[in-house]
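Fold these two proteins, one after the other.
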Amino acid sequence: MPAQSPFQEHLYTNYIPTDDEMDQIRADLPQHEAELVSLNKLIRELTARHNGIKAHIDSHRALISYARRLPQDIIEEIFLACLPTEGCPKLNSREAPLILGHICGLWRSIAFGMPSLWSSLHFSMQAPWRDFAKHSEAITDWLVRSGELPLAISTWGETMYREHYHQIITRFSHRIRSLHMSDMTVTQYLLVAGLDAPLLDEIRFAPRYWDHGLGQRVLLSKLFRGENLRRVTLYSLEDMWSFVPIAPFFWHHLTDLSLEAGDNGGLYCRSAHRLIKGCPNLRSLKFAFQTDWSEDQPFHPTKHITLPNLESLTILLSYTDINHVYKDLVDMLFMPRLTVFHLSHSRTIPRTSPCPPLSNLECLDHLAARSPEIVNLTLDFLYLTKTTGVHLLQLFPRVETLQLMADEMYTLGNRTMGQSQRDAIEFIKLLNRLCPDLTELVLESESSITEFSEAIIGFLNSTTTLRRFDIRCSCVLDSEARETVPDFQLFRRRGIVINTTYTYPPLKATSGQFSAFGMAF
C-alpha cells in the first residue's frame, strides 16, 4: 500500500492545489505508476500459471470422469430423456437433440446414429427467404436421420414457399404417424390433403382462419379418411359446424375426437348429431356446442344414437340453453360405458348472455340410467342450483373426481348476481355426504378462494378419502385478500395435495395455434 498522502484531507473534494502542490503531486505519481505496471505484469504471469494448472486438472479429470465410462446404451437413454415431454422437439441448435451433437465427436456420432432421437420434429414454415434453402435442408436432414421409424411432424405458420415445405412432407408421408398443423389456411392444408399416409394415427389442425366454403373438404379429404386414423383434433375460432359434411359420412375407425372452438365456433345440434352418428366407435369426444337461434324450425331429433365404447364426453357451451342441450343432445345418446362427463360453459366467451338454469331433471334421470358408471363429473353452477346439483350427485354416488365451476354471467335471466357462488358454497358443505368416495376435487371460480374458505375448511376437516384438491381462481389477489386465504398446511401434512392457482385476466381464445391443444410453440 502507498504511504499516507500529504493531500489526504483534500482527496474527493473540490480543493484546488497551489502551483507548488501541483508540482509535488506530479513528482510523486511516476513511482506509483511504475509499481502498478509491475503488478499488472505479475498478475498476467500468475493468471497464465493459474489457467495452465486448471487446464491440466480439468483435462485429467475428464479422463477419469464417469461420463467416459458410461456404456453407449446408457448414453442413448440419457439422450432420449433430453427430449421434450410435451410436443415435438424444435429445429433449434440450442435444444435437444441438435445440441447433443455439439459436445464432442463421440456424442455426435451416437446422437446422429439414433433414429429415435429424430423421429419427431416441430418446425415453422416462416423462415426468411434468404434462409429458406438452409432451413429446408435442415428439416430434410433431420427426418433422414430417423431411418425408417414412424414420424411425428408438427408445422406452424403460413409461407409463400408452402409448396417446397409440402414437398418435404410428401417425401416422408409414408412414415408419418402423427401430423399437427397450425396457423395456416384451409387452402394451404388442401395442398397436402391428398397425401398417402398409411400409418397416420393422429391429426391435429388449427387454421389461422377459415376459408368459407372449404370447411367440409377438410373432413372429406384423404388424410382424414385414412383407415388407421384414430385421433382427430380440430380448432376453429368460428363456424366449426361448417366442417361437418351435409351428406352422411362414417368414421368407423375413429376413437378420439376433439372439436374446440372460439366465441362463435360451436357445433349446432343438427351438425353435432350428424357428426356423432358417423363416429360409432368413439372412446373420447369433446366439442363446443351452441344453439342455432336463426333456425326457423329448430332441430329436435327423435332417434337415439348408441356409442357403445364412449368413455369420456366433454361439451363446452356458448350462448346455449342447457335444457336444450340435455333434451336434444345428451338425452339422445346411449353411452353405457361412459365414466367421464363434463358439461360446462366455455371460458372463451364473454359471459353476457341469458343462462337459465337446468330445469329438466328427467334428462338427468335418463343419463344416470343409461350411463351408470360415471365417476368423473363436472358441475357448472351457471346452469345448476344447489337442488339440481344435489340431485345429480345422488344419481351418481360413485363419483371419485369432481369439478365445480362457480363463475357468474352478467345477465342471468331470473337469477341474481352471486347466486352461482352461493349455491356452490352451500353445495360444498354437503360434499362429504354426497360423495363418500371422492378422491379429487377441482374448484374453479372468478372470485378469490376467501369466498369459499368456511365451506372448504369444513369439507377438508370431514373428508377421509380426498387425495387432491385444485383451486383455480380467475381474479386479482390483493394484499387484503392474501391475509384471509386459509392455511392448508394442516391438510397437506395429512397427505392431501392442494394447489391454488390465480390467473388474471381469465383465459381467452387465442389464434389457431396449438396452444389451443395445450401445446405452446
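Now the second one:
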Amino acid sequence: MTHLDARDFLSSRPDNAATIIVDNFDKHSGGPSRSRAENHRKRQKSTDKKAWDTRQKSAQAAVRKFNHRRIFPRNP
C-alpha cells in the first residue's frame, strides 16, 4: 500500500478507525524493538550481577585464605 493509497483509505474512514490504523503504521515502522532505556537497564542488570559475582568470589577467597592461615600459621 503506497502512501497515497493509505491516505485515501484513511480519509474514507471515520476518525477513530483512522487513528487505530495510523497507530498500527507507527508501531510497525521498523523502529528499535526495545527502547534505549530498556536496553540500558538490561545491560546495567547484567553488569551489576557480574560485579556481585566478583565480590562474592573475592570474599570467598579471603575466607579461604584466613582459614588456611589459621590451620597453617606462618611462624608457629
